[in-house]
Specification:
This protein is α+β, with helices and mostly antiparallel strands. It contains seven helices and seven strands.
Length: about 220
Amino acid sequence: MDILQAMQERHSVRAYTDRSIEKEKTDILFKEIESINAQSGLSLQLILDDKDAFNSMMAHYGKFVNVTNYIAVVGKKSEDFDTKAGYYGEKLVLLAQTLGLNTCWVALTYNKKKNKIRLNDGQRLACVIALGYGQTQGVQHKIKTYEQVVKNPSPSDAQWFKQGVHAALLAPTAMNQQKFKFELDGNKVKLRKGWGFYTKLDLGIVKYHFEAAAGTDNFTWQ
């Protein structure tokens, strides 16, 4: 499964089986997290067999079942932290999908007091990503059209740009709000967020999808 297929097949899953994640798969995830942390300055953490983090009223209210594995998206407080967290977190989400695992971005409905997340001075937790073998594969969320998220869309827009936008429309966003807008100027691309909850985090997720499908050699961010 390549990254574009992973984008198409990946859907949010909240209910998991009690099947353990195989060591060969967690080894791949640990290695990728180590690489991302070295590259980005984040402190992403893969946490396994934590029975407390999703054992709360909020988690049950959010309909989370059997979540004992998750990725904590942690990093130093900064202006671009949330966008960076979304970008690299989604890279791990899609990697997990290629490994046959299911995921769900979680911002609120987990136990913030009882968990195994490590926070150092000056660090912040953006969110967590539930991880494991889903009871189902989830369902496709409703998405906007190309014309709704592109400023001045045209049939003559570059093919790589169209591919990038369509991939961006498959990206998970908070409450499925998809509050972002693309603009094309030659080989320069603008991506702007709208107003709403977690739109900075969403921006990073959307940016990763766009880059993966458009190809970073074809454009520059403006």
